[in-house]
Sequence to fold (262 residues):
Amino acid sequence: FRGDGDAPDWTRLYERRSDYPIGTVPEGGLILFAGADVQKDRIEVEVVAYGRRMQSWSVAYRVVPGDTSQLDGPGSPWRQLDELLGEVFPHAVGDTGLRVQRLAVDAGYNTNTVYQWVRRQAANRVIAVDGRDTYQMIIGQPKAVDFTERGRRKSRSVKLWPVGSSLAKTELYGWLKQVKAGDDVPFGWCNFPAYNDEYFRQLTAEEIVPRVVKGYRKLHWEKVYNRNEALDCRVYARAAAALEGIVRWGDGQWEEQGGEVG
Fold:
Protein backbone atom coordinates (compact mmCIF):
# COMPACT_ATOMS: atom_id res chain seq x y z
CA PHE A 1 0.00 0.00 0.00
CA ARG A 2 2.98 2.30 0.29
CA GLY A 3 4.39 4.16 -2.69
CA ASP A 4 1.71 5.81 -4.81
CA GLY A 5 -0.40 6.49 -1.71
CA ASP A 6 2.39 8.21 0.21
CA ALA A 7 2.02 11.97 0.40
CA PRO A 8 4.53 13.80 -1.81
CA ASP A 9 7.08 16.05 -0.13
CA TRP A 10 5.37 19.46 -0.08
CA THR A 11 8.68 21.26 0.42
CA ARG A 12 10.04 19.90 -2.86
CA LEU A 13 6.96 21.18 -4.70
CA TYR A 14 7.27 24.54 -2.96
CA GLU A 15 10.92 24.84 -3.97
CA ARG A 16 10.29 24.15 -7.66
CA ARG A 17 7.57 26.78 -8.11
CA SER A 18 7.58 28.64 -11.42
CA ASP A 19 7.64 32.42 -11.94
CA TYR A 20 4.60 32.81 -14.20
CA PRO A 21 2.06 35.36 -12.91
CA ILE A 22 -0.88 34.09 -10.87
CA GLY A 23 -4.05 34.55 -12.89
CA THR A 24 -2.33 34.25 -16.28
CA VAL A 25 -2.36 31.09 -18.43
CA PRO A 26 1.24 30.18 -19.27
CA GLU A 27 2.47 29.11 -22.68
CA GLY A 28 1.43 25.50 -23.22
CA GLY A 29 -1.84 25.82 -21.32
CA LEU A 30 -4.65 25.39 -23.83
CA ILE A 31 -7.87 24.69 -21.91
CA LEU A 32 -9.11 25.61 -18.44
CA PHE A 33 -11.00 23.54 -15.90
CA ALA A 34 -11.92 24.35 -12.31
CA GLY A 35 -12.80 22.49 -9.14
CA ALA A 36 -14.68 23.98 -6.19
CA ASP A 37 -14.86 22.71 -2.60
CA VAL A 38 -17.77 23.96 -0.49
CA GLN A 39 -17.33 24.61 3.22
CA LYS A 40 -19.70 26.23 5.74
CA ASP A 41 -18.18 29.72 5.53
CA ARG A 42 -16.39 29.74 2.18
CA ILE A 43 -15.92 28.22 -1.25
CA GLU A 44 -12.40 27.33 -2.32
CA VAL A 45 -11.76 27.00 -6.04
CA GLU A 46 -8.79 26.26 -8.27
CA VAL A 47 -8.50 27.04 -11.97
CA VAL A 48 -6.18 24.63 -13.78
CA ALA A 49 -4.84 24.87 -17.34
CA TYR A 50 -4.08 21.67 -19.24
CA GLY A 51 -1.96 21.11 -22.30
CA ARG A 52 -0.45 18.32 -24.34
CA ARG A 53 0.54 15.12 -22.52
CA MET A 54 -1.67 16.20 -19.61
CA GLN A 55 0.81 18.81 -18.43
CA SER A 56 -0.98 21.22 -16.11
CA TRP A 57 -0.54 24.70 -14.66
CA SER A 58 -2.37 26.04 -11.63
CA VAL A 59 -3.66 29.41 -12.86
CA ALA A 60 -5.46 30.66 -9.77
CA TYR A 61 -6.48 29.45 -6.33
CA ARG A 62 -9.13 31.50 -4.57
CA VAL A 63 -10.85 31.39 -1.21
CA VAL A 64 -14.27 33.03 -1.43
CA PRO A 65 -15.67 33.81 2.05
CA GLY A 66 -19.36 33.82 2.86
CA ASP A 67 -22.26 31.74 4.10
CA THR A 68 -22.59 28.95 1.53
CA SER A 69 -26.17 28.22 2.58
CA GLN A 70 -27.17 31.61 1.13
CA LEU A 71 -27.54 31.43 -2.63
CA ASP A 72 -28.35 35.10 -3.13
CA GLY A 73 -27.59 38.35 -1.36
CA PRO A 74 -24.63 40.73 -1.23
CA GLY A 75 -22.51 38.40 0.93
CA SER A 76 -23.19 35.20 -1.00
CA PRO A 77 -20.01 33.47 -2.26
CA TRP A 78 -22.03 31.95 -5.10
CA ARG A 79 -22.18 35.33 -6.81
CA GLN A 80 -18.40 35.36 -7.03
CA LEU A 81 -18.47 31.86 -8.46
CA ASP A 82 -20.85 33.23 -11.12
CA GLU A 83 -18.28 35.90 -11.90
CA LEU A 84 -15.50 33.33 -12.16
CA LEU A 85 -17.38 31.53 -14.93
CA GLY A 86 -17.50 34.77 -16.91
CA GLU A 87 -13.91 35.76 -16.24
CA VAL A 88 -11.38 35.80 -19.06
CA PHE A 89 -7.92 34.72 -17.93
CA PRO A 90 -5.20 36.39 -20.04
CA HIS A 91 -2.83 34.10 -21.92
CA ALA A 92 0.91 34.51 -22.11
CA VAL A 93 0.74 33.93 -25.89
CA GLY A 94 -1.55 35.86 -28.20
CA ASP A 95 -4.05 38.63 -27.56
CA THR A 96 -6.93 36.47 -26.40
CA GLY A 97 -7.63 34.82 -23.08
CA LEU A 98 -9.44 31.72 -21.91
CA ARG A 99 -12.60 31.10 -19.90
CA VAL A 100 -13.15 28.08 -17.72
CA GLN A 101 -14.42 25.30 -19.96
CA ARG A 102 -16.08 23.36 -17.15
CA LEU A 103 -16.30 23.68 -13.36
CA ALA A 104 -16.97 20.75 -11.03
CA VAL A 105 -18.41 21.69 -7.63
CA ASP A 106 -18.58 19.33 -4.67
CA ALA A 107 -22.15 18.68 -3.51
CA GLY A 108 -21.20 17.06 -0.23
CA TYR A 109 -21.93 20.12 1.92
CA ASN A 110 -24.98 22.41 1.72
CA THR A 111 -26.13 20.00 -0.95
CA ASN A 112 -29.47 21.62 -1.77
CA THR A 113 -27.86 25.03 -2.21
CA VAL A 114 -25.25 23.51 -4.53
CA TYR A 115 -28.03 21.94 -6.60
CA GLN A 116 -29.91 25.26 -6.76
CA TRP A 117 -26.80 27.03 -8.03
CA VAL A 118 -26.00 24.32 -10.57
CA ARG A 119 -29.56 24.53 -11.96
CA ARG A 120 -28.85 28.14 -12.92
CA GLN A 121 -25.78 27.23 -14.96
CA ALA A 122 -25.31 25.76 -18.41
CA ALA A 123 -25.16 21.98 -18.08
CA ASN A 124 -22.11 21.79 -20.33
CA ARG A 125 -20.14 24.20 -18.11
CA VAL A 126 -20.98 23.27 -14.52
CA ILE A 127 -21.46 19.87 -12.88
CA ALA A 128 -22.20 18.77 -9.32
CA VAL A 129 -19.87 15.99 -8.16
CA ASP A 130 -19.64 13.48 -5.34
CA GLY A 131 -16.25 12.04 -4.35
CA ARG A 132 -16.19 8.27 -3.76
CA ASP A 133 -13.06 6.50 -2.59
CA THR A 134 -14.06 3.09 -3.97
CA TYR A 135 -15.13 4.29 -7.43
CA GLN A 136 -12.84 2.91 -10.14
CA MET A 137 -13.12 5.73 -12.69
CA ILE A 138 -12.05 9.37 -12.52
CA ILE A 139 -15.65 10.28 -13.39
CA GLY A 140 -18.59 7.98 -13.97
CA GLN A 141 -22.17 8.11 -15.15
CA PRO A 142 -24.40 10.73 -13.48
CA LYS A 143 -27.75 10.25 -11.80
CA ALA A 144 -30.61 12.72 -11.67
CA VAL A 145 -31.31 14.14 -8.22
CA ASP A 146 -34.66 15.87 -8.85
CA PHE A 147 -37.86 13.86 -8.61
CA THR A 148 -41.55 14.44 -9.38
CA GLU A 149 -44.24 14.06 -6.75
CA ARG A 150 -44.66 10.46 -7.93
CA GLY A 151 -41.03 9.68 -7.29
CA ARG A 152 -39.87 9.73 -10.90
CA ARG A 153 -36.68 11.48 -11.95
CA LYS A 154 -37.33 14.72 -13.80
CA SER A 155 -36.09 14.81 -17.38
CA ARG A 156 -34.26 18.13 -16.85
CA SER A 157 -32.99 17.33 -13.39
CA VAL A 158 -29.64 18.34 -11.94
CA LYS A 159 -27.26 15.41 -12.35
CA LEU A 160 -24.78 14.27 -9.73
CA TRP A 161 -21.53 12.90 -11.16
CA PRO A 162 -19.54 10.30 -9.16
CA VAL A 163 -15.81 11.00 -8.92
CA GLY A 164 -13.24 8.31 -8.14
CA SER A 165 -11.41 10.44 -5.61
CA SER A 166 -8.97 7.71 -4.53
CA LEU A 167 -8.03 6.99 -8.14
CA ALA A 168 -7.61 10.71 -8.91
CA LYS A 169 -5.46 11.27 -5.80
CA THR A 170 -3.24 8.30 -6.64
CA GLU A 171 -2.78 9.59 -10.18
CA LEU A 172 -2.02 13.11 -8.94
CA TYR A 173 0.48 11.93 -6.35
CA GLY A 174 2.29 9.90 -8.99
CA TRP A 175 2.55 13.00 -11.16
CA LEU A 176 3.68 15.20 -8.27
CA LYS A 177 6.52 12.81 -7.39
CA GLN A 178 8.02 12.91 -10.89
CA VAL A 179 11.46 14.40 -11.50
CA LYS A 180 12.45 16.18 -14.69
CA ALA A 181 15.40 14.84 -16.66
CA GLY A 182 16.88 17.89 -18.38
CA ASP A 183 14.36 19.56 -20.64
CA ASP A 184 12.15 16.47 -20.99
CA VAL A 185 8.74 17.07 -19.44
CA PRO A 186 7.12 13.88 -18.06
CA PHE A 187 3.52 13.00 -18.87
CA GLY A 188 1.26 14.70 -16.34
CA TRP A 189 3.88 17.18 -15.11
CA CYS A 190 2.34 19.75 -12.74
CA ASN A 191 3.40 23.41 -12.67
CA PHE A 192 2.66 25.91 -9.92
CA PRO A 193 3.13 29.68 -9.53
CA ALA A 194 4.49 31.33 -6.39
CA TYR A 195 1.78 30.18 -3.99
CA ASN A 196 2.52 30.18 -0.28
CA ASP A 197 3.42 27.05 1.66
CA GLU A 198 -0.16 26.52 2.90
CA TYR A 199 -1.32 25.59 -0.60
CA PHE A 200 1.30 22.86 -0.94
CA ARG A 201 0.63 21.51 2.54
CA GLN A 202 -3.04 21.16 1.62
CA LEU A 203 -2.28 19.63 -1.78
CA THR A 204 -0.30 16.85 -0.09
CA ALA A 205 -2.52 16.58 3.00
CA GLU A 206 -3.54 12.92 2.71
CA GLU A 207 -1.99 9.50 2.35
CA ILE A 208 -3.15 5.89 2.28
CA VAL A 209 -2.97 4.02 5.57
CA PRO A 210 -4.14 0.47 6.46
CA ARG A 211 -6.98 -0.06 8.90
CA VAL A 212 -8.52 -3.31 10.17
CA VAL A 213 -12.30 -3.18 9.70
CA LYS A 214 -14.35 -6.16 10.91
CA GLY A 215 -11.29 -8.38 10.73
CA TYR A 216 -10.23 -7.28 7.24
CA ARG A 217 -7.40 -4.97 6.41
CA LYS A 218 -8.56 -2.07 4.26
CA LEU A 219 -6.77 0.96 2.91
CA HIS A 220 -8.09 4.44 3.61
CA TRP A 221 -7.06 7.96 2.69
CA GLU A 222 -6.43 9.89 5.89
CA LYS A 223 -5.22 13.40 6.61
CA VAL A 224 -1.61 13.96 7.55
CA TYR A 225 -2.32 17.71 7.62
CA ASN A 226 -5.42 19.37 9.04
CA ARG A 227 -6.52 21.07 5.80
CA ASN A 228 -7.04 19.32 2.44
CA GLU A 229 -9.16 21.74 0.41
CA ALA A 230 -6.47 22.30 -2.24
CA LEU A 231 -6.27 18.55 -2.84
CA ASP A 232 -10.04 18.27 -3.20
CA CYS A 233 -10.18 21.21 -5.62
CA ARG A 234 -7.50 19.66 -7.81
CA VAL A 235 -9.35 16.31 -7.84
CA TYR A 236 -12.57 18.01 -8.94
CA ALA A 237 -10.79 19.99 -11.66
CA ARG A 238 -9.29 16.72 -12.90
CA ALA A 239 -12.78 15.20 -12.96
CA ALA A 240 -14.02 18.12 -15.07
CA ALA A 241 -11.12 17.53 -17.48
CA ALA A 242 -11.85 13.79 -17.57
CA LEU A 243 -15.42 14.48 -18.65
CA GLU A 244 -14.04 16.48 -21.59
CA GLY A 245 -11.89 13.46 -22.52
CA ILE A 246 -8.67 15.44 -23.01
CA VAL A 247 -6.45 12.51 -21.99
CA ARG A 248 -7.50 10.87 -25.27
CA TRP A 249 -6.99 13.94 -27.47
CA GLY A 250 -4.68 13.60 -30.43
CA ASP A 251 -2.48 16.26 -32.00
CA GLY A 252 -5.35 17.55 -34.12
CA GLN A 253 -7.57 18.39 -31.17
CA TRP A 254 -4.71 20.06 -29.29
CA GLU A 255 -3.83 22.03 -32.44
CA GLU A 256 -7.44 23.21 -32.60
CA GLN A 257 -7.26 24.41 -28.98
CA GLY A 258 -3.99 26.15 -29.73
CA GLY A 259 -5.60 27.96 -32.62
CA GLU A 260 -8.25 29.39 -30.28
CA VAL A 261 -5.49 30.76 -28.04
CA GLY A 262 -3.30 32.33 -30.70
